[in-house]
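Task: encode each sequence below as structure tokens.

Item 1
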Amino acid sequence: MGIVGKDSIWEAGNVYELVDLRFGYCRFAVAVPQETLSSAGIFHWQPGFRLATKFPAVAAEYMRKKGWEGEIIKLHGNIELAPRVGLAEAIVDIVSTGKTLRENGLVPLEFIGGEATARLIVNRASYRLKAEEIKQMVQQINAVLEEGGTILLPIYKWPSPQAEKRLKQNVVFQPELENKVAQILEGVKKKMEIRPF
């Protein structure tokens, strides 16, 4: 089990998405340098242009739908620097506020793929082996979320006392849900080993 952004699920797939944990909001933006827009605010894609991204599958799908021909350049790190240093004419990246785009002179052409938040996931093999335990934990987490609580669960290796202490300190919830959150944490601890991935 793990917690990842919906953006990672769109890119990689191949896991079961169990719960929308309702934090870490972001979305994909296709962005270009402000100065490349026409006076009417339009960006004219040319064959052979390059699009830089950490998310090549998302970018390829976008280019296919737009009918654009060009090269996708997979990068790591600060994607928004790619146009500035001449590596690409456009980028696809995740944004939450758009501040980093603005700071780098980029403007979003459009937002694609919908909204992304943190999701609880499990790989297919683990789900088959521990389906009942996982379903029970998902029900408990959903109950907390439905009552207005928010669960932030960093992943630590059990049974370290330090990890348990840090985990309890990092769970954010409404005060009246304290017992329910404690029960969920105890259930997680008893039912399965939680490992970083």
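Item 2
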Amino acid sequence: MTPTAYMWWVIFLFTIIRLIWYHNKKRYEVIVMLEGIKKISIIGGSGTGKTTLADNLAGELGLPVYHLDGLNYSENWKENNKDKRDKIILEKIAQPQWIMDGTYTSTLERRLQASDFIIYLDYTSLAQARGVMGRFLKNHGKEKAEIPGCKEKMTFSFFFWVLRWRGKKRKYIVELVNKIDQNKVMLFKNRKQLSKWYRKTFNKDIIIK
């Protein structure tokens, strides 16, 4: 090997080592940051994977998880009293540590203010529709673990509600999120972005049940 070729090999190896070091350094910084976090809010529309992400983060960080859909519905999709639901949510907020997934705008501002870390899954309406349809096709008739007594189902009214949700809710959500210290907000525009971040942070993929 000539001296010139040897020099280029050294430069190449040094560059690779530096890239690996930088990647691990950034991953370590994120993990340290997450370890100091005790209250996480995951928000976004239906079909964005909030519940799946919450369960995965709970497993990684050892935090209790509260699925707000589970507080909103009783057996056979009976909707609970909204005032009682919100009272329970506010009681959960007062606890020292938690992960909460769900948007529910009536308590959203309080949850965001109380959170140490906020993950906003700001997906398109089409992505949401694909998410709820994929979930239905995969789990049709199966009981939802996060909502005991309720089986996965799909209705036309719910599907069209999902399509309209972003247009009706997003402006208000963005206004609230913009009031929060942006250092504690992570926004993802699609599943690919979220999956990449999760893989870099925890060195594994999100487990989808």
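Check on item 2: The chain has two domains: 1-35, 38-202. Residues 3-35 form the longest helix (33 residues).
End of task.
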